[in-house]
Design brief:
This protein is an alpha/beta fold. The chain has one domain: 60s Ribosomal Protein L30, Chain: A (2-Layer Sandwich), CATH 3.30.1330.40. Helices cover 31% and strands 32% of the residues. It is built from three helices and nine strands. The strands form three sheets. The chain has a five-stranded mixed β-sheet with strand order 1-2-9-7-8. Strand 3 and strand 4 form a beta hairpin. Helix 2 packs across helix 3. The longest helix is centred in the middle third of the chain and has 23 residues.
């Protein structure tokens, strides 16, 4: 078992099958030593997490949705490189939060994905990031996160 797989098990995280694209794009692109992963919506073990922050969902629920996005990013990353121990750096995450115009806690929501990356990859999980609000997201998802990763 790889070091990262062992860490996932320690955290009680089981990676799902990577989600297939729902439109005309690929789930990831490997270019040189970087993996660019398309946006992963908030699909958890119980299905798609939908809703709008500031109108029905609170920050904690949003962070759980972002965590689900992070788990899906890691599942796609494993599909892209085979062995998660090849990951040398989480370079950047882009977080999109389905929210009302007056909602201002997007960074706290996207921390659900960011905290996961640090928990799984340690210092190599610290990354640059954007966290923005959106009036809607695909399939009504609460959160969507994309990522750039460096591999050996």
């Amino acid at each position: 078992m790889s070091r990262i797989d062992a860490r996932l098990a320690e955290l009680g995280i089981v990676l799902p099958e990577p989600v297939a694209p729902v439109a005309n794009y690929v789930p990831f692109v490997v270019s040189g030593n970087q993996v660019f992963i398309s946006g992963q919506v908030s699909i958890g073990p119980d299905g798609l997490i939908t809703g709008k922050l500031g109108a029905g969902l609170n920050v904690e629920q949003g962070a759980e949705a972002a965590h689900a996005c992070g788990v899906n990013l890691i599942a796609q990353l494993k599909a892209a490189c085979g062995d998660l121990d090849k990951v040398t750096r989480v370079v950047k995450l882009g977080g999109f939060v389905n929210c009302t115009p007056d909602f201002v806690d997007q960074p706290k929501v996207v921390n659900g994905a960011s905290d996961l990356m640090v928990a799984v990859f340690g210092d190599a999980g610290r990354h640059a990031r954007a966290a923005v609000g959106a009036p809607s997201l695909p399939l009504g998802a609460a959160v969507e996160v994309d990522g750039i990763f460096e591999i050996a």
